[in-house]
């Protein structure tokens, strides 16, 4: 690829970014879009609905949103949005810091060495091939390769140092989150599955007898979990119908006849529309909700239950110990918070879970390899010679300069991005079928699946040849992995730069505009004449799509830093813009209905270590191909040091994210008993976990709740 093709892609994406940012700064000011761009702050009553009177400032683009997003401190974000949001923002801050160091070293040290690595006459800058900016342009046995080795050592040590302090800081935030937050009902509750059926007593009595016998001093009560039977499905459908008709009473229709000139005749009424009159049968919330009509008594039996304990310490101990000599009976685990529970998955038989997980692993692998088809097609677009041989009719079109720049510089990343939009919903569905018991757990599982999928298809498959047979050979010969990656990665660095432009810059600016939510809001209000301002439709933050994207760009930055440092300026712009955009979205758009308490940080740490080790292995292969034995020899201790650092962090910090300390739990129990809060917590436990009041939401979304999308 020539430099002018890269500049063409950059120009197109910069134009799109300017358009999206300007559009956002205008549409966010319109009162009709309040719930689109200020859903969270409206729910928390931090922003009141503005006056509908017209002002000229509403149609002029302004940068006011940048100042609003930059203003709140980390403590304020932690208090209002939650720990998961802080962890996500700390991930971006870490990326900005480490790639700032890499930018200074590689752009002013490595890039000139790559450019002048061969004794050659350079063309005009715009006509230069991008390979002259990569390590491919450095001649074999060059004495300057030691500087590439030194640069990677500095980047690796800096990354490990920053990772250590980030892990330490976030671990402290998690401990404070557990201790200082208001009492969490999940700390007193465990989920019991695979409860055996006894012939001489009902299952309710069996649960009570078992826990009184073995946890008599700490057992408080329990609540059965029911499966959804035919009667419950009938009640759910009836309630769905009610939910559609309740808003029509006062929100969906205008009670005055509207002239035909204001209606299109297809989606609204005409001037001869019937007048609407109040019905004597008024559907009011005064009636007992259908979900609490006692249908639970008619539901099918289930071998799961929620068991409540008097203290946190007793609940944690009961969730960790083996309850029976048969590990497949009386299986216990800590329960999620009431808003976080995925009720539809709690009644899945425990013996069925391993089959589900194995099936999902197989389905994920099949989907991963099926995705090779679009990726291989995209790879072909970057190789014009091969493309013209396979499709002769393109030879006339691809002789034009602007078409070559468009096809090689912009089109591949756009096509790949379009295909990747189908991945997160499918992975969310897989995580639901897998049997996750909480929404946050489902989102974390989907996040990991999307991350593995993205790294494989965007990085490894694109780095290798477009031939699927060659990719299978790559898997069958693992000893050649460093040399295969070292030989092919510099040539694909230009594609990764355009991918950062398309999937990074443009996607971030499109995230600001909220294209889908804005379109839905306009259709509801101006076409279907309905009020779309429903607080229940305010989404939660899509960690399962954004975390993998940020980590993928981190992987590209580490692996390309010394091989193709031209990618670093584009990554710096992405992370800086992302910090502002994500702060704005978390503070204004997305609500925090549930969270995992910072559970995503170990995923971030593990992926960063993987990226560092992969970059070091690829550099080892590059130095071997360049016949620099000294540089190759210094890479092996660096890989060992990075792995030892990872093992230390795993022993030092990871248990904080996996377990609760007895010291903290006992201290919280004592404080609540002394202050008299414990009795209030016990009373709240009896009503907080209400299955019939919340199970409808799980069923209405067919396994993937709307706030997860």
Write the layout of secondary structure elements.
Elements: H1 3-27, H2 34-37, H3 39-43, H4 64-70, H5 74-80, H6 83-115, H7 145-180, E1 189-193, H8 203-214, E2 219-227, H9 230-245, E3 300-309, H10 312-320, E4 331-334, H11 343-346, H12 350-370, H13 372-381, H14 384-390, H15 401-409, H16 411-420, H17 423-434, H18 439-463, H19 468-476, H20 481-513, H21 515-527, H22 543-560, H23 567-588, H24 601-625, H25 629-652, H26 654-658, H27 662-675, H28 677-688, H29 691-700
Antiparallel strand pairs: 1-3, 1-4, 2-3
Helix pairs in contact: 1-15, 1-20, 4-23, 6-7, 6-22, 6-23, 7-24, 7-25, 12-17, 13-16, 13-18, 16-20, 17-18, 18-20, 18-22, 20-22, 20-23, 20-24, 22-23, 22-24, 24-25
Description:
The chain has a 4-stranded antiparallel β-sheet with strand order 2-3-1-4, sandwiched between helices. It contains 29 helices and 4 strands. The protein has helices at 3-27, 34-37, 39-43, 64-70, 74-80, 83-115, 145-180, 203-214, 230-245, 312-320, 343-346, 350-370, 372-381, 384-390, 401-409, 411-420, 423-434, 439-463, 468-476, 481-513, 515-527, 543-560, 567-588, 601-625, 629-652, 654-658, 662-675, 677-688, 691-700; strands spanning 189-193, 219-227, 300-309, 331-334. 62% of the residues lie in helices and 4% in strands. The protein has 2 domains: 3-184 and 352-659, no CATH class; 185-249 and 283-336 and 662-709, no CATH class.
Give the radius of gyration: 29 Å
Summing up helix and strand content along with how strands pair, one would put the structural category as mainly alpha
Number of strands: 4
Strand content: under 5%
Enumerate the strands of the largest sheet in spatial order, edge to edge or round the barrel.
Answer: 2-3-1-4
Quickly count the helices. 29
Alpha-carbon distance between the termini?
A: 37 Å
Dominant shape: globular
Question: Sheet with the most strands?
Answer: 4 strands, antiparallel
What value does the average pLDDT take? 80
- The unreliable regions are 248-299, 466-475, 695-707
The tally of structural domains comes to 2
Helix content: 55-70%
């Amino acid at each position: 690829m020539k430099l002018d093709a890269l500049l063409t892609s950059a120009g197109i994406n910069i134009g799109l970014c300017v358009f999206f940012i300007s559009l956002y700064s205008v549409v966010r000011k319109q009162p009709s879009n309040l719930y689109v761009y200020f859903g969270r702050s409206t729910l928390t009553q931090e922003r009141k609905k503005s006056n509908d009177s017209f002002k000229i400032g509403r149609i002029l683009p302004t940068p006011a949103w940048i100042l609003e997003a930059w203003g709140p401190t980390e403590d304020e974000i932690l208090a209002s949005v939650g720990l998961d949001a802080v962890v996500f923002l700390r991930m971006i801050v870490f990326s900005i810091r480490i790639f700032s160091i890499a930018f200074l070293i590689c752009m002013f040290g490595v890039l000139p060495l790559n450019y002048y690595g061969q004794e050659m006459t350079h063309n005009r800058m715009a006509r230069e091939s991008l390979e002259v900016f990569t390590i491919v342009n450095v001649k074999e046995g060059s004495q300057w390769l030691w500087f590439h080795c030194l640069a990677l050592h500095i980047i690796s040590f800096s990354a490990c140092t920053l990772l250590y302090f980030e892990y330490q800081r976030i671990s402290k935030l998690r401990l404070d989150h557990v201790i200082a937050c208001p009492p969490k009902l999940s700390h007193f509750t465990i989920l019991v599955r695979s409860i055996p059926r006894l012939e001489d007593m009902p299952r309710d009595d069996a649960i009570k007898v078992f826990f009184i016998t073995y946890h008599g001093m700490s057992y408080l009560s329990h609540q059965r979990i029911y499966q959804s039977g035919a009667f419950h499905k009938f009640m759910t459908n009836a309630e769905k119908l009610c939910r559609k008709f309740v808003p029509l009473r006062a929100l969906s229709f205008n009670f005055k006849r509207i002239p035909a000139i204001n209606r299109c005749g297809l989606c609204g009424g005409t001037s001869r529309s019937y007048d609407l009159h109040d019905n004597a049968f008024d559907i009011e919330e005064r009636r007992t909700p259908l979900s609490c009509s006692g249908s639970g008594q008619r539901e099918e039996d289930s071998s799961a239950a929620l068991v409540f304990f008097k203290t946190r310490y007793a609940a944690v101990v009961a969730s960790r110990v083996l309850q029976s000599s048969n590990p497949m009976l009386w299986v216990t685990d800590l329960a999620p918070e009431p808003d976080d529970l995925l009720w539809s998955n709690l009644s899945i038989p425990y013996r069925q879970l391993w089959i589900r997980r194995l099936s999902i692993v197989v389905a994920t692998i099949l989907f991963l390899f099926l995705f090779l088809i679009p990726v291989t097609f995209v790879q072909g677009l970057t190789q014009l010679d091969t493309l013209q041989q396979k499709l002769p009719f393109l030879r006339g079109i691809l002789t034009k300069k602007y078409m070559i720049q468009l096809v090689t510089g912009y089109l591949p990343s756009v096509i790949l991005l379009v295909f990747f939009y189908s991945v997160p919903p499918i992975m969310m569905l897989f995580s639901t079928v897998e049997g996750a018991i909480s929404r946050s757990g489902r989102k974390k599982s989907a996040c990991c699946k999307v991350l593995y999928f993205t790294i494989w298809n965007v990085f490894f498959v694109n780095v290798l040849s477009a031939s699927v047979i060659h990719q299978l050979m790559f898997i069958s010969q693992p000893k050649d992995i460093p040399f295969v990656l070292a030989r092919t990665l510099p040539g694909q660095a230009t594609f990764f730069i355009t991918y950062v432009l398309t999937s990074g810059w443009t996607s971030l600016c499109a995230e600001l505009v909220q294209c889908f939510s804005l379109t839905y809001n306009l259709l509801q209000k101006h076409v279907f004449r309905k009020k779309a301002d429903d607080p229940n439709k305010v989404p939660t933050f899509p960690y399962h799509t954004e975390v993998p994207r940020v980590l993928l760009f981190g992987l590209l930055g580490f692996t390309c830093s010394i091989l193709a440092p031209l990618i670093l300026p584009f990554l710096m712009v992405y992370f800086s813009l992302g910090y502002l955009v994500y702060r704005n979205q978390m503070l204004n758009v997305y609500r925090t209905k549930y969270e995992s308490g910072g559970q995503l940080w170990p995923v971030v740490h593990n992926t960063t270590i993987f990226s560092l080790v992969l970059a070091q292995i690829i550099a080892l292969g590059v130095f071997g191909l360049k016949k620099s034995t000294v540089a190759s020899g210094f890479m092996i201790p660096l890989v060992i040091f990075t792995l030892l650092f990872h093992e230390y962090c795993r022993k030092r910090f990871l248990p904080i994210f996996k377990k609760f300390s007895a010291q903290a739990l006992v201290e919280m129990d004592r404080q609540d008993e002394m202050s008299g809060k414990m009795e209030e917590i016990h009373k709240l436990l009896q009503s907080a976990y209400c299955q019939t009041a919340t199970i409808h939401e799980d069923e209405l979304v067919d396994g993937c709740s709307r706030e997860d999308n």
